[in-house]
Amino acid sequence: MQSVALIDYGSGNLRSAEKALVRAAAGTSQVIVTSDPDTVAAADRVVLPGVGAFAACMQALSERPGLIEAMTQAVQEKGRPFLGVCVGMQLLATRGLEFGETRGLDWIAGDVRRVEPKDPSVKIPHMGWNTLIDPHGPPPIAGVGEAPMYFTHSFAFYPTSEEDVAAWVEHGERFPAAVAKNNVAGVQFHPEKSQSAGIALLARFLEWRP
């Protein structure tokens, strides 16, 4: 049975994310909530959740001794499939521009910056259900189709190369809703809050063989 490391660094709705992953796995995977570097390095798959500010989440991740190094070993060196969710996706960026400049993991080049709709009547944060535009790339994202997903955020990840964007969403302006590069994928929305469509995405991630 494959192991899935759900990273616990004090950020993210871990309980909901764990329940959603267990449901998606349907007994085929062992979901381990962990911040232990050895467990993460040995995992078959890695999921990084995140809720809150980029800088605070990056600091919390950095303060867990050996955790970023273990993630890097599993994902970048061993090529294990990775999924970042919400701020967990944003941390893939080169830097975040929320409350100053903060360095990210830099696994996908780009910046995280505030969503600034051209229409002043469009409210930020972007909160609620929205349909993805042109979901493509790896199976977890390409299979979404027209199913709406649940968003709640004020900042978005803008990759340097549009080739790394796997889906868009419209909320006063068009911005990336998902990113993907090699064995690394990230979604701005919350699969664990997106009902059956979100569970289906997680199930595809658990079967993904990049």
From TrEMBL:
InterPro entries: Class_I_gatase-like, GATASE, Imidazole-glycPsynth_HisH
GO molecular function annotations of the record: glycosyltransferase activity
The reaction(s) this protein catalyses: L-glutamine + H2O = L-glutamate + NH4(+); 5-[(5-phospho-1-deoxy-D-ribulos-1-ylimino)methylamino]-1-(5-phospho-beta-D-ribosyl)imidazole-4-carboxamide + L-glutamine = D-erythro-1-(imidazol-4-yl)glycerol 3-phosphate + 5-amino-1-(5-phospho-beta-D-ribosyl)imidazole-4-carboxamide + L-glutamate + H(+)
Start and end residues of each Glutamine amidotransferase domain: 6-205
Main location: cytoplasm
Domain of life: Bacteria
Any Pfam family matching the protein: GATase
EC number(s) recorded for this UniProt protein: 4.3.2.10, 3.5.1.2
Localization of this protein: Cytoplasm
Active site feature: C86, H190, E192
Keywords in alphabetical order: Amino-acid biosynthesis, Cytoplasm, Glutamine amidotransferase, Glycosyltransferase, Histidine biosynthesis, Hydrolase, Lyase, Transferase
Entry-linked Gene3D superfamilies: 3.40.50.880
Biological pathway: Amino-acid biosynthesis; L-histidine biosynthesis; L-histidine from 5-phospho-alpha-D-ribose 1-diphosphate: step 5/9
PROSITE patterns from the UniProt entry: GATASE_TYPE_1
Known partners and oligomeric status: Heterodimer of HisH and HisF.
Protein role: IGPS catalyzes the conversion of PRFAR and glutamine to IGP, AICAR and glutamate. The HisH subunit catalyzes the hydrolysis of glutamine to glutamate and ammonia as part of the synthesis of IGP and AICAR. The resulting ammonia molecule is channeled to the active site of HisF.
Protein name according to UniProt: Imidazole glycerol phosphate synthase subunit HisH
Originating species: Phenylobacterium koreense
